[in-house]
Design goal:
Layout (H helix, E strand, L loop, with lengths): L3 H29 L36 E3 L4 E6 L5 H12 L1 H4 L5 E6 L7 E4 L2 E4 L7 H19 L11 H7 E3 L2 E2 L17 H14 L1 H8 L3 H15 L28 H9 L4 H7 L1
Parallel strand pairs: 2-3, 3-5
Antiparallel strand pairs: 1-2, 4-5, 6-7
């Protein structure tokens, strides 16, 4: 039978234990926060224009001509600020965002396609995905850029975020201690690209692109790599809740080694477009593949 003194003692012990755990976590943070990520970039094709998350500021000019705009109950808006015909690219964005497994993560998204060149080729900021110099992007580059930036949007604005918990950490905690600090045992084989090793946000976005565009390659890698399997399972179970992309591929070439960034992979824009247009007919998709 517990008396009042024993109860008070147990409460103090629990408080003390919580304090010790907190101090240990702080010690680990200071121990690893200055750890540098060393990446042998000479092994990869370098990214022409890296991007970051700093805001961009722009204003409309008379040179920008709005040719196409579509609004689905304020879910998303796609705007073409060029004088080029981008109907095929816009239609692909539209079809992908209408997929039930994707649309549930979308609200108040704006995709802006720009004619002018910037220091960066793309930027996601404040609910807006900006893609620059779009008329000079190949279909495969455009496809990768859109999916990559869409994942930053979903990560920031869709996944559940509570005061002390963020759904994104189910993915982050697989390979990362902090934003740019890898867990001590990490190696290149645990990532889908060299660029994915720069920080946990790019790991998230790069992995999403590979899950969508070269799922079969990703799936094969999971058979011998538990960390990649955990990342693969996160997208299947937490994000999509379905295996609709399971073992599909839209890559024209087999990978002999991972690239620095996935824009270098040769994706089949038309095959992917055809696939997502049939996504509401799951049985037919498997037969079509």
């Amino acid at each position: 039978m517990w008396n009042k003194k024993d109860v008070i003692f147990m409460i103090w012990m629990m408080i003390l234990l919580s304090l010790i755990i907190f101090l240990i976590n702080q010690a680990i943070f200071y121990l690893f926060q200055n750890k540098e990520i060393v990446i042998d970039e000479d092994k990869y094709t370098t990214l022409e224009n890296d991007f970051d998350f700093e805001p961009i500021y722009y204003k409309k000019t008379e040179q920008k001509i709005v040719l196409w705009q579509k609004d689905f109950s304020q879910k998303y808006v796609i705007t073409n600020y060029t004088n080029w015909n981008l109907d095929t690219k816009i239609a692909l964005i539209d079809e992908f965002l209408k997929l039930e497994v994707v649309n549930k993560h979308i609200w108040n998204l704006e995709v802006k396609l720009h004619w002018e060149k910037k220091e960066v080729r793309w930027k996601m900021v404040k609910w807006i995905i900006n893609i620059f110099d779009v008329q000079n992007l190949s279909d495969r580059e455009f496809l990768w850029i859109f999916l990559h930036e869409l994942w930053h949007y979903i990560d920031i604005y869709s996944l559940k975020k509570l005061i002390i918990w963020d759904e994104s950490f189910l993915f982050y905690d697989i390979s990362w201690d902090f934003i740019k600090v890898l867990k001590p045992w990490q190696k290149e084989d645990n990532f889908v690209s060299g660029y994915a090793m720069t920080n946990r946000y790019e790991d998230f976005a790069e992995t999403f692109v590979e899950y969508i565009l070269d799922n079969s390659w990703f799936y094969e890698k999971t058979k011998t790599n538990n960390e990649l399997k955990s990342k693969y399972d996160f997208f299947t179970n937490t994000i999509f809740g379905t295996t609709c992309f399971d073992k599909t591929t839209f890559s024209k070439d087999s990978k002999s080694q991972i690239e620095w960034d996935s824009t270098k992979n040769n994706y089949d824009f038309e095959k992917f477009f055809d696939f997502i247009k049939k996504m509401d007919k799951i049985d037919e998709i498997k037969n079509w593949l």
